[in-house]
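Worked example 2:
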Amino acid sequence: MTTEFKKNHAEVCEAWRLLGAVNRAPYIEAAIPKLALLTGDANKARRLFTHLLNQAPMLDATERMVGATGESNDLYLTARGKTMVIGGDSARTMAVLGQLVAALLTGNEVILHWPSQDEMCVAAANALYETGISDDVISIANDSQTITLLYIDRLAQVAIAGSPSDIQTISQGLANTDGILTQVIAVTDMEGLSEMLTPDYLHRFVTERVRTINTTAIGGNASLLELGT
C-alpha cells in the first residue's frame, strides 16, 4: 500500500460512496473466501459476511415522502464518512472483519486499526485491494497509538470489537476530542456476534438524507395540472 499523499483521495472515497451498496457488494463478495480463511472458522465467517451483503438492496432503497405541493422529497441512506475499525485486546478476527465488511458495504472510508494483529490486517486489506477496492477507501493505521488516532480530522464513527472495558476506554477518549460528534458502534459478543445480527446493525453505519426537487420549476407537476380541470 502506497504511503505517499494521494491528491485524489476525496474524489475516490466519494466515488465509492456514490457507487451504491448493491454495486459495492460484488467487490467485497469477491474477497470473502480469503477473509473467511483469516478467521479460523471459514464456514461461520462466510455465513456472517453473506448475511451482511444480502442487505445491500435495503441500503439503496429510497422512500418517497409527503411534502409541499410542487416538490418531491426522497428519503435515502448514505455513508457517514471516515470510519475507524478497531480490534480490542479481547477481540476476535471474525468480529473485526465483520465490522470492516459492514463499514465498506455502507460506503464509508475505512481505517483499520488492530496493532496486535498487524499481519492479519495487511492480509485482509490486500484481499480487498485485489478485488479492485482502492487503498484510498481502506487503509491500515497500526503504527500509531489508538488514543492519537481518535483525534483524526472528520472522524465520523468508530466501530470497535472487544470487551466492555475496551468500549468504555475508546468512548472516554472520543469524549475528549473536539470537532464533529463521533459515533461508537460496539460489538462485544465475540462468540455469537449477536450485535451484527440485529435488524438495525447496518443502519448504524449510515445517516439519513432527504433529496428535494422543485418539480414545478423543472416543468410542472402533473398533479398540479389536474387541480385546474
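The CA atoms of residues 28 and 128 lie 7 Å apart. The chain has nine helices and eight strands.
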